[in-house]
Amino acid sequence: MSARRSGALGGRAAVVGIGATDFGKDSGRSELALAAEAVRAALADAGLGPGDVDGMVTFTMDTSPEITVAQAAGIGELSFFSRVHYGGGAACATVLQAALAVASGLAEVVVCYRAFNERSGRRFGAGVARREPSAEGVALGWALPFGLLTPASWVAMAARRYLHVHGLTPEVFGHVAVTARRHAARNPAAYFHGRPITLADHAASRPIAEPLRLLDCCQETDGGQALVVTSLDRARALPHPPAVVVAAAQGAGRGQEQMTGFYRGEVARLPEAGVVARQLWGSSGLRPADIDAAILYDHFTPYVLMQLEEFGFCAPGGAGAFVAAGALPLNTHGGQLGEAYLHGMNGVAEAVRLLRGSSSNQVAGVRHVLVTAGTGVPTSGLILGADG
What we know:
Largest sheet: 9 strands, mixed
Shape: globular
Low-confidence stretches: 1-6
Strand content: 15-25%
Mean pLDDT: 94
Distance between the termini: 27 Å
Oligomer: single chain
Strand order of the largest sheet: 3-2-4-7-1-8-11-10-9
């Protein structure tokens, strides 16, 4: 049923505008100001104005409500507004919900946005803060008392298991880190602009949570990113070639938790990514060989390898060699490891640039780009394609 729903959506909406603030470590601005700046930039890029917008989608974790961002950006009446849960897992789902609204006629132009001061404000890597009692808190209660207090420590459990199961060394994670920083080095917007790294740099970076090192971990970033979604018919009259929503999906695995799913079977896999993969391939009729570039959510290097395997680009345990060989253009903006950590929204923007032909690391002849959202949590994914 889910595949049929996604298939009915495919080709009916497109991303037509992308806009971002500067990415930094101390913005000096409120998260609302960042959101409004990104929204205005995305609308200008789309050749649209605030008066054209009638829908908005963001993350439940975003501190700036849709109506407040609308006021700050000069947007008027809204006929659709929505939020998606599960942190970075929401990134592609914001576009999915926007496309659904457009395809169903609930809205004509929908803005998706995410803005935060993740470095100068609330730092996710600083550990779990005191929480009000909740079902999610109960799940974390099985891990926190044993010292698993940060996202890095949670992912380290899966990373250690992955290396053990496949008889590998941490160098396989280094291939992801090196690839991301190589692309970031050529991207003027990236934190690692002009600063490529080597496998030796990766191996020498300080330990964070064994087997993860500093260069296995994403940036902590202040900034905002926005996207504009409208119908494909309307998109064709706008300034840039549309990035068509070929397929979109959300997915949660059996026994899903939020980055602490250590009791649901094999720890060295990402079942939620498999749920998304089956829907995307099934509804689009495409296969891994049809994908010209991939923007995979990279808050930590091991989960990039596991995603490649879940999506069928290579056999289990083979993703490190796959990345090392450059078999698929991967995270051409530098990813969240090298460009900025914007909960995956900057990855969707990079997919749009690849289809427009304007990436800092442009790939020739791009027709289809796979984009994924946060892993280890309920997640989402997109296949964006060229028009025609």
